[in-house]
Amino acid sequence: MTLPAWMPTIVEAIYFIAAVLFIWGLKRMSSPRTARQGIVWAGAGMAAAIIVTFFLPGMQNLGWMIAAIVVGVVLSWIVGRRVPMTAMPQMVALFNGMGGGAAAAIGVVELIKFNAALGLVPNTSPIQPEAWADVAGRLGTTELVLAFVGVLIGAVSFTGSLIAFAKLQGWMDRRFVFPLQRWANLAIFAAALVCGALALAAGIEGHAFAWGLLIAFIVLSLVFGIAMTLPIGGADMPVVISMYNAFTGLAVAFEGFVLQNEAMIIAGMVVGAAGTLLTQLMARAMNRSLGNVLFGNFGAGSGAAQQDIAGALKPIDANDAAVMMAYAERVAIVPGYGMAVAQAQHKIWEFAKLLIDRGVKVKFAIHPVAGRMPGHMNVLLAEAGVPYDLIADMDDINPEFPNTDVALVIGANDVVNPVARTDKNSPIYGMPILDVARAKNVIVIKRGRGKGFAGIENALFYADNTRMLYGDGQAAAGELVTGLKSLDA
Amino acid sequence: MITGFLALYIFMLAAFTGYEIISRVPVILHTPLMSGSNFVHGIVLVGAMVALGHADTPIEIAIGVVAVLLAAGNVAGGYVVTERMLEMFKTSKPASPPSTEKK
Questions:
Q1: A434 CB-side CA count, 13 A
Q2: What's the complex ipTM?
Q3: Which chain B positions have a beta carbon within 8 Å of A102's beta carbon?
Q4: Per-residue pLDDT reduced to its tens digit, A345-362
Q5: What string of DSSP letters covers B33-65?
């Protein structure tokens, strides 16, 4: 295919516009009112960048390319459309892992090309094959280093995200711990680095490196992604997914440098930085450092030392609970992931609307890590139609709990557990919590007597001012609605 | 041709941009934004296409196809999931003041 000489300039220009649209789109996404336009802008930039890439000079294998794009797009489009909203976090993990894998694969292709060219250094070889001409301008020390680093990060993000996906999807035992695991992981990582460094050293000196080194490097990087994610518990997955999101961004930026593609560098780096900050925000919301999340083996072996909790669970039936809230002045509803699993958000909002009609001041209190990701709960409440001015952050609502007549906890557990303040031996000690225990009355809707996601006993449930309303979230919320309606009948 | 230092400047400026964008976001949008940034690094598809487009040997082509396949999944999946999440915000009453919009 012969293309006009000005074509590469057009492509560059479109890449520039795409980069602007990505940043503009992310900016728009940072405000609730403009968020929806944001993704459309970014999508337009992405479509334009992909289309013009077909018109770069010297593109081959177009049949394969189009087939792979069609298959990849159609499959993940269908999957993305069909999954329920509660499964969104693992979807982000899955698609992020795919991006990381793609970045690693790009690096591998480039390294194969570099190595083939290194085997045929032009000064010593009389014939300069095409392989050399293709990479001659790009084969420098920086490119080699970044190609290797990109493969490492991309591969870790790939397998790590897939493990995170499998864990959140419930396909895998939540944690997988064995003695000396940290050292084993460290050994894998070190081995990967050694293989990469040996290959790199040869490449920088201008010799080809052994193919075995490259293969070992790739395999060890992939294994490290798995090994690093296995011991991390399900409750910490959001932080881990966010970190891998940043990893993929970095890998994309590095491979973008190797390919001399500005759009990849900018988009990858923006995501890398944004993802890093988001990861920190999430870790901070749980009052833990990232290192602690990754290497802390959350909740391991501390069970024996925890304080015993005194008191009994006191049940309440739905009618009494409905009456209690109907005559309250202020009600705070504290939803957790359990509400989402039970698909109870619509019923709860119906109940809240009835309360509001009766003149009760209702607010939804959201813990930063409620659900499986920051903001996950907000998305689920928004799905049910809850206006976002009724939704309060932890910092805003916590001082209001002493003036709250009834706090209705539905499907939340660890984020309202006072043990986080009182028991130094608890694995969640120090995590900021919603001060639900300070409300005048607490009603907890809970399916059974089981423990929360972190597997810790909850002192709130045994408190004097707490009543337990047992049942499936949606059924219980339905009974509350009925109870409230029967008051007026 | 992007040289080392030029790339370093681009890296630096892009990193600050990403940091600035996220630091002003209310918690309510963190998940959609993570999903949105997940979509944006789908630009890796462009790189995968370039890698496959210049692949010569069968092994290069095979890995290139895998790269394009994965990257295409990242782009499409990232877009759909983000769009679905953000669609939720349409249902909030237009009359409600954007009080949670913190700057």
A1: 32
A2: 0.86
A3: 44-45, 47-48, 66-68, 70-71, 74
A4: 888 999 999 999 888 999
A5: HHHHHHHHGGGHHHHHHHHHHT--SHHHHHHHH
